[in-house]
Amino acid sequence: MKITPALLLRSMQSWYSFDLVPQGPAWMQWLWTGLFAAVIAFGFTILGFAFNAGGNLGRWLNGDNWLFWYQINFVIALTISVTIHVLFELIVPWIGVQRIRSFSHGQRSALFTAVPIAGVVMGWPLGVWLVDDDLGRWIRWGEPGTLVGSAILALGASGLIFLVFNAKARQLQAEKRATEAQLRLLQGQIEPHFLFNTLANVQTLIDHDPAQARQMLEAFTDYLRASLGTLRGDQGTLADELALVHAYLTLIQARMGERLRYRIEPAPGSADIRLPPLLLQPLVENAIHHGLEPKIDGGSLVVSATVDGDTLVLRVADDGLGRQAPPRLGARAGNGLALENLRQRLAAAYAGQASLVLDDGYPGTVATIRLPLERETT
């Protein structure tokens, strides 16, 4: 899998926002856990020097002393962090992702507070033992005040970590809700565009071929009946999207007949990949209306989906007239609007990590969408 800055960012965000479906490879989540332990160890090392070195500049400038205490703090912090990570790896599948998502805010906060505290309680003695087999020197059972102070410090650190991470999770959730609202607005703009195009096609057939117009209208009714629920959803799967494209092409073929030849080629095992609805259909519409329909003998259309590492690649390729062809006399507008709308939807849904590119196909046109790979969870 190709490691990109975008993948690293998504993986890190999913790690610190309590995302139940981590992004990127599993080892990357462990990497963030290790880096987090390194930062925490540095903080505790500075805290230790502040309490013990005081104003003694010589102690502050002693590199060997820094290295010695940082190594100790890192081992302890890493042990605690790994313990917390392991607990989440065990508890989340046991409870179930869908059940946790249905938790109230209080239940979710309790879960994501209790697990770090349990990780500290379990990991701190183990980490101390790893750096010094004389656990009693650290715990000091004969000094209750020291033991209570250590426990309060550990619980306080856990609470602080939770508050920081929970605040970031709330921020990301608010941004996600704003993005979803923007997506619904953009989707609401593109649906009338599709309906207008289809009804305009029926209108052009009514005068010279009423029977074919009736057939197309019946196909259109069947299409709406099958797809209206999908169009109104915020998320769907690649299987849903390709089924929608197939229904649409069946509808168009009712008018074009043998002039339209098409293939739909999904990647093996890609049916459960998640994506917003109506990503492919505007591209298919443009390919037909601007490339194949004005061509005397029609042409072929290939809709494909492939997986390239952590990226889903969607292509709509036609062998029509191409982008350089002059516009048809009386052709309806909307091509630029549909593409710009689609680019805005991709930008909103994937925070700039998705792209839409149009290339010449020699002959025809190739439209390519690249977006982060997300699998549907059960």
Task: List its traits.
two-stranded antiparallel ribbon, Heat Shock Protein 90, 378 residues, 2 domains, alpha+beta, five-stranded mixed sheet
Write the layout of secondary structure elements.
Blueprint: H1 5-16, H2 26-52, H3 57-60, H4 63-95, H5 97-101, H6 105-131, H7 135-139, H8 144-208, H9 210-231, E1 236-237, H10 238-256, E2 260-265, E3 274-275, H11 281-292, E4 299-308, E5 311-318, H12 335-350, E6 355-360, E7 365-372
Helix pairs in contact: 1-2, 2-4, 4-6, 6-8, 8-9, 8-12, 9-10, 11-12
Outline the structure in words.
The chain has two domains: 5-139, no CATH class; 178-372, 2-Layer Sandwich (Heat Shock Protein 90). It is built from twelve helices and seven strands. The protein has helices at residues 5-16, 26-52, 57-60, 63-95, 97-101, 105-131, 135-139, 144-208, 210-231, 238-256, 281-292, 335-350, and strands spanning 236-237, 260-265, 274-275, 299-308, 311-318, 355-360, 365-372. Helix 8 (144-208) packs antiparallel against helix 12. The longest helix has 65 residues, at 144-208.
Mean pLDDT: 76
Number of strands: 7
The largest beta-sheet arranges its strands as: 2-4-5-7-6
List the domain count as a whole number. Answer: 2
- The low-confidence runs, each spanning 5 or more residues with pLDDT under 50, are 141-149
Looking at CATH, which topology of the largest domain would you report? Heat Shock Protein 90
**CATH class bucket of the largest domain:** Alpha Beta
Radius of gyration: 29 Å
Biggest sheet character: 5 strands, mixed
Strand percentage, roughly? 5-15%
Which structural class matches the secondary elements? alpha+beta
